[in-house]
């Protein structure tokens, strides 16, 4: 039996955010959601780059043997492009994105997951979350510090530990291969849905609305009614038999791109050495000017125009430099200073001898005291924060990881104490009284 997908994708900026940093993709072979982060300038770029790197996988069928390798290669290509964009545009430094993607390979589904965007499976009316959030709060749940119920309302539940970003640390994604069973319904979503709508409500919606387009619209509406505090992106897909058209609708064939990637999907990257930029340069055609159309200009006038253009260029460069420096002073990150966790203002980069950051707060948390090896690595590679308050919250979470998890105290066992046996002491034998003899 050959299976296919009937799918829909929706994305909304929400009721609070000013721009949409989510991106989504749905096609015959590929389903994907990317939730960007890194402030107003970088999150939408990172998620768009990720979708652009994965989208070519939707162009042809794939065998189950190499599907996971293709997903891993696309992830690496996206990371290289994000680094190139960040190097070409310093204001994008620190950007990153979550990734949840499913690649259909025949009757199998290959999945890659990084971050807190989730994958759900509705099978036989039961909803199962098939991904594990890569967040610090989930780490606290895993080591027994807090309960899953406490994690749902934890103020730092959106602090992500694993993302696809422009830092050099090698981040290991979750990779898996699953069966594509007819009747299954798959939901990929950003935390704009899962963070505001309960799992029970999501399950009831998936069960009650059969049409994928109507169901996806309903899920977005539920997130907005719950406050819409974040961008919300939904990719929904039903696994159907290829020849099953009994309900009047066969598989979907046209790809759908939503979110920030919808506006920039076909635009070449501005990175100097990015693959898209190189491809764009190959299409440029140099047109020689027609000498007959050029009006004669006196040499002094040309000289004056040249000096004027140079002066304007200098002024613009100075203005850009001042503006860029002012912007760096609004950025923060958590790093290491003399072996301790510290908060920096600026960017973790330098321009020749000029450092673009400075320490604003040093803590008493030694990096070597962190229990998690992954957290030690992340601090050494620096953790971006959108404000000083966000950086302090990151430090507080790191401080919670320095204390070993409490071990249960064994209940004392009462052992009966036997009283010592009485000691028999031999009493002295009384001597006979002297006998009086009459004289």
Describe the structure.
The chain has 439 residues and is of the alpha+beta class. Helix content is 32%, strand content 25%. It contains twelve helices and 17 strands. The strands form three sheets. Strands 2, 3, 4, 5, 6, 9, 10 and 13 form an eight-stranded antiparallel beta sheet that branches. It has a five-stranded antiparallel beta sheet with strand order 1-12-11-7-8. Helix 1 runs antiparallel to helix 2. It is globular and about 65 Å long.
Output the keywords.
about 450 residues, alpha+beta, about 30% helix, 5-stranded antiparallel sheet
Quickly describe the structure.
This protein has 439 residues and is an alpha+beta fold.
Largest sheet, if any?
A: 8 strands, antiparallel
CA radius of gyration is 33 Å
Strand content: 25-35%
Using the alpha-carbon principal axes, give the shape: globular
What is the typical, i.e. mean, pLDDT?
78
Helix % is 25-40%
N-to-C span: 139 Å
Number of strands: 17
Order of helices and strands: EEEHHEEEEEHHEEEHHHEEHHHEEEHEH
Structural class based on helices, strands and sheet pairing? alpha+beta
What is the secondary structure topology, with strand pairs?
Blueprint: E1 3-12, E2 22-26, E3 30-37, H1 39-54, H2 67-88, E4 96-97, E5 99-105, E6 108-114, E7 118-123, E8 126-129, H3 136-142, H4 148-152, E9 164-165, E10 174-179, E11 185-189, H5 191-194, H6 199-208, H7 212-225, E12 232-241, E13 256-259, H8 261-264, H9 275-282, H10 299-328, E14 332-337, E15 340-351, E16 354-366, H11 373-381, E17 383-385, H12 388-400
Antiparallel strand pairs: 1-12, 2-3, 2-13, 3-4, 3-5, 4-9, 5-6, 6-10, 7-8, 7-11, 11-12, 14-15, 14-17, 15-16
Helix pairs in contact: 1-2
